[in-house]
Amino acid sequence: MEYFVSTASASRQRTDCAIVGVYDKGVLSAAAEDLDRRIGGRIARLVKRGDLRGKAGDAVLLADLTGAPCDRVIVIGLGA
Asked: Is the dihedral of CA 23, 43, 15, 6 positive or negative?
């Protein structure tokens, strides 16, 4: 398995799986907001439904993402 870190825009980075974060109380990181716009608000909907609160240790896998430059996105909770 190969890993790399990039500061490029999450919505433009071509990769098999992108990882973005959400802070406590569902506040999307800049990378998560950027990618969320590209995938039709799926991350924001997870937060709104209460499926992702942003607590440290939270993790959700999203797949089948229309409009995304990646096949999958892992959204992780970053805490406060």
From this structure: negative
Structure tokens at 42: 């799926």
Which CATH number is 15-79 given?
3.40.220.10
Record the tokens describing residue 54, joined without a space: 């942003």
- Strands of 1-80 (E only): list them: 15-23, 27-28, 59-63, 70-79
Q: Are 78 and 22 in contact (CB under 8 A)?
A: yes
CA distance 52 to 78: 11
Which tokens go with 66? 């229309």
Span 10-64, pLDDT tens digits? 677 788 899 999 999 999 999 999 999 999 999 999 999 999 999 999 999 999 8
